[in-house]
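Budget justification note: compute hours in this period were largely spent on complex prediction jobs such as the one shown. Inputs:
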Amino acid sequence: MKTRVSSPFVSRVFSAPMMAAVALVLLTAPILAQVIRITPLAREDRLLVSFDVSETFTEDLREAIQSGLPTSFAYDVELRRATPLWVDRLVSSARVAATVRFDNLTRRYHVTVMHDGRVELTEVTEDEAVVRELVTSFQRLPLFSTRQLEVNADYYLRVRARTSPRSQWSMLPWDRAAALGSVRFTFIPQ
Amino acid sequence: MADPVSGPPTRSAPLNGVPPSRPPRRPFRDNPRLILVWIAVLVAALIALIVLAERSAQFSPDFLSEVVLYALTVADLTILVALGFVLARNVIKLMVERRRGLPFAHFRSKLVLALLGFTIVPALLVLLVGSELIRNSASRWFSTPVDEVLTSAREIASEYYRQRETDLGREAEHLAGELARIDLASADLETVRTIATPVVTGQHAGMVEIYRADPAGSRGSVVSVLDLAAPQMPRTFSRAVADRLASQVIAGTGERAVLEPLGDGGQLVRVAATIRPASDRPPTGVVVLSTHLEGELARNARRIVEAYEGYQQVRVLRRPLEGVYLSFFLMMTLLILVSATWLGLYLAKRITRPVQRLAAAAKEIGAGHLDHRIEPETRDEFGSLVEAFNAMASELAVSRRGLERSQLDLKEKNLEIEARRRYIEAILDRIATGVVSIDAEGRVATVNGAASRLLRLGREAIGQPAASVFGRDDLVPLARLVDRAGRDGHREVGGQEVALVLEDREVFLAVAITPLPTETGGQGLAVVLDDVTPLIRAQKVAAWRDVARRLAHEVKNPLTPIQLSAERLRRHFAAAPEPTRRLVDECSSTIIEEVDSLKQLVDEFSQFARMPAPRTVPSDVNQLVRDALGLYRGLFQELRIEPRLAPSLPVVQLDQEQFRRVIINLVDNAIEAVTGAPGGPPPGGGLVTVDTQHDVTNGVVRVIIADNGPGISDVDRGRLFLPYYSTKHRGSGLGLAIVRRIIVEHGGSIEAVPNEPHGTRMAIELPC
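Corresponding output:
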């Protein structure tokens, strides 16, 4: 499977209407969306997805966690296929979520990681670095089956990250992504 | 008429069956109940907002920042969009109304702008100031001392717990080391109890729980071996917590310490340690030591932590929380703005709508729809105004009908006057009397046909100054009369006879000038002209006939004695000597010849004076002409007499003898004009032609005798038909006078005109 650097999202985002929309968002939202590094990998009949969003672990988030607020990191992973002159087709999607709660009395972090609503991991740790790793870096998550993919066809993965609670305020009522990223690939079975 | 405004407003009755125009019903805006409901909803929303703001302190910060903030933002944006829509719609409507020039569009625009300005400006100012106040207040929530106190307290509480965990962990490690010396799977319970009891009795821990690994079980599976608890330990703890901790620790998948809350508010600090016979061997069991934290202590520690976390959470969520309060404030402002805007627009419509309806109705009335009425919507001053308008429209309708009747009468009268005017105009145009009217400014106003013919005036004379029109050379005598009448203060001038020479013809006019009052109060002149030329001529002829008769009578009587005396003298001197006899013969012959000549002259006079009335019979003009010309056949060598007779002529009533005499007289004159010319007949020979023509259009038979002689001068031609006027050296000068008289007595006319290229044409017109 080959991975290309060029992203359809990047080209699309620079269209005139989108630029106007982005300008509006920039005016009203002080947080800039981060770009997520995504790596797809086909193994056997699963598409393993790795992504890293360590940039989203900002000082604001750290303070929110330290304040004892239950802080969640939600990642919507979408597998799409580009469709000319139309909305890209959604092949499959998955949701990865991580929740952190810091106990200020015991100084321990309670981390829960879920995939599509299933609890995959629960961990209590005192190490902040471990927490950061657990909630922002995901390696080889078997999120999608490759059986629904067409050989030698171009796809792209898009990951949208959201954090809660928001430490910033925007007049825009809709939920904004804290980070966005996508990567194109051609499916070649191993 | 009663003052419609002063009385109480009454419903106007339909006029002539036309119902008053009803304003279009608007189901939402014209429904007072619905409006009250809307006002109630708005007030309820404001109250709910105030209550929500009051209770917002009870909500958790994340609930405020996530749920409440989201809901408020959505509500704010919705209200903002609604406000923008309402404003844009009304602004566009006002612009369209202004562009279309609808009545009161400018006034309504100003009213709406003023009302909006009165509302929006203070509301925005309050919003700005309030927002700044909220921001400043939020910044005062946090202060360094409070932060430090809370952090220190949290550190103390946390450190205490940590210390208790550390101590307990050390004891657990020590006990685990002791137990590692025995085989838990095979050792008896008393041995284990002996090792563990000092831990409890020495108050190093409140409770000891010992587990051994279960090799037959799954990973992390443990079996409880011994539980030892101090008497002061509460019994409300959960054994499952210790079991889970043991299992987790032996599996190496979790933390070694856990804090278990108890029902009395206290807490159990549990710490686990693995029992490992050697460092390179797997654990054989787990020791869990627990110590009890009193309820008050735990509660205080938890309270400290909660206070710290609450403070920190507010600090972290400061901006969203500010957003919540700003959204509250913004929503209040927007609700006020929406209410004020709606109220402003509603008031503007309430004020301008009746006026617009009045303006529209006035337009209808102006367009002539006088039966248009407005139904009053209210009983207030606008209602009175509408009633007054309806009353005015009724009065207008009545006046209009009266006016229409008057117009109809006037139109009929105008038509009658017009008909009369045309009748008079037709009469004036057809009468033989010429009429020229001159207005007060001295310009020619009208010239009837007779005047135009008599004075040779064209239509272009109308509108010209009378002085210039009558200033023409041939009209000077008339101009003097007109001028005199004008100068004498428009004094009436009657029966003045004026002789004019028009186109070389002498015309006699009887002129009467009458002052003519004009519509503007001035005075013009009416100049009445009668052509009395025939009358004058007839008078002259009658005078001449009288002279001829007297002359014939007075002259003829002595002629016979003279002639007889001359003959007697000649006979008496017949025997006288030759010289005497010859002298007497010569003298008596002369006397007798002259007397004969005088007799002939007297006979002509007598004939002119006693000319009988014509005895007309139906006659063939061509035949009469041929008979007359037959007398000249073969008489002249150098003169041709050519009859050019029309192939068919109608029968004409003629006195054949008199007509033949006319033809002979005129042909004689023509022959004499050609042959008696000073240079003799013209080259190519003399020519006399007699043409007969039938003019169907004018109903006349025309006989034209033309010669190619030298012609007659213009002056002679004008007097040609007067008695005793002759261009010849001999003759009585009565020939053409008799000819003219014969023709006139036949109802015809004769005129002499120049022939082309030279000569004279005598043209006779006889009615047929």
